[in-house]
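2024-03-11 09:14:02 DEBUG pipeline.ingest accepted 1 chain
2024-03-11 09:14:02 DEBUG pipeline.ingest length=334
2024-03-11 09:14:03 DEBUG pipeline.predict start
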Amino acid sequence: MSDLLLGPLGETILDLIQSTSNILLDIYFGVVTTFGNTLPILIILVLLYYTLDREFMTNLIYLLVFSAHLNYVAKIFFHNPRPFVHNAEKFQVTTNVLNQETIWGAAGYSFPSGHSQTQGAIWGYILKKIKYLPLFVLGIVLLISIPLSRSYLGVHWPGDILVGVLFGLFLSWMFIRVEPWLEMRAKKWTDSEKILYGLGFSLFLFFLGVIAFIIGSLFPFNEAISISDPVVWVEADIGTYPGLFAGIVVGRVFELKYVNFSTENIDKKSLSVRIVIGIVSISILYFTAKWIEDLVLEFQSDLLWITQATNFLSYFVIAFCLAYLIPWLFSKFE
């Protein structure tokens, strides 16, 4: 199947977008699409959490993690192939930037676009909360450019990016509406209750992915997928974001109880220490988790659940360290 939402019209629009190809757009879209990845955005948000506004960034991180997981769930439910998978001869894109050729591709399924959904979610939240003209202009530029780059580079149909942006905006609107209620309830919960509810919700997210997988395989929109195929489970990756969510919740409970660091009135030295420790720690944690994932993939054979369980545990540890152990390090250095 081609464009799941727009059908043949989507192919026509994609042809039109790609017909504008030139060296300047290659450079521009190649750069902005990289900054649309969830990982760089999470790194930036974590560093801002350490240095700018911890409560605002905590809520934004929760929203981003929730949105990213729902995007995975939707993709494994619809399992629609990407444009270059549907027709590599027609839609595969190779850019040439500074004599460096890049053949663009992406893993997993196409509908909806994760980059587009992420932009809709984070900018919908930020621009609603912060009234600042330069930030508004930046947000609108990225909200248009990053989704558009995904079709320009041939990795998403126009329908993917349209649904992605709209769904992301809807999630931000919904989160803003329930945020006051959640904060009020959280003030009444004990630490044990916060951990229990956080772990419970993360398991709910995990099994939501499992249910979508089973329904999508039994009633396929496109080609059937097999729940006994380890490769399909690897592409689904339903353990990463629930693990991150659980680790953030548990780490935050420990941090507030034993560290309780502040982002107010930080001197330049402390700010530099936090940025350096944050970047180094995030890099070490992330590449360690990827190494573990690759190691598990090498030995998993036909054990379907081992990759997902490993992803959940690995990213739980990453989030716990980011939320608790690294702020603890700040308290020692500062």
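2024-03-11 09:14:41 DEBUG pipeline.report The two ends are 57 Å apart (CA to CA).
2024-03-11 09:14:41 DEBUG pipeline.predict end
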